[in-house]
Amino acid sequence: MLSARCAFSCAKRLPLKPKQLTTRPFSATITKYKNDKYELKPEEKGKMVPFEEVKSKEDLLPPGAEPGTIPTDLEQATGLERLEILGKMQGIDIFDMRPLPSDRRGTWKDPIVVNGAGDEQYLGCTGSPADSHHVRWCVVSRKRPYERCDECGSVYKYNYIGPPDDPDHPHHGYEEPKNFTDYVRPEYWYR
Length: 191
Description:
By secondary structure, the chain is an alpha+beta fold.
């Protein structure tokens, strides 16, 4: 019995090599793959355009790095990231990332203004003075430009600075969902 146990445990520890069915030469595993459909033509490559000369999306295409080098952020960034980098090189903060003023509490007559280029903007209120309560997230939009923090009572106003609306392109009939404020009497609405 002891010998059977020893033989079994030794057999478990021996490495077993599977029988290789076929062998192939090393030269067959390396294939050279060249596909020209992903190569950019010279007229499609981007160019370095200063911030003042950016007029279209095509101006935000990068030139890329020279072959064999590692590209910098300026050489490989595209779209809004490239616009932000070009703006920072000129000392312009494209997205206005300054914190909202927290030295005062916004009121209905003098709200804290939040600029935005989209249909809605999320903002985090930390109270006045700063960090007097945990972050309370508020949403201001073009249809509802005023929002009040439910903890400290600070009022925020949305200032739309984006492009004007295109009357020929409606937003596919989107209607904001109803909430409790839609059922408040008109005399209690903010003005």
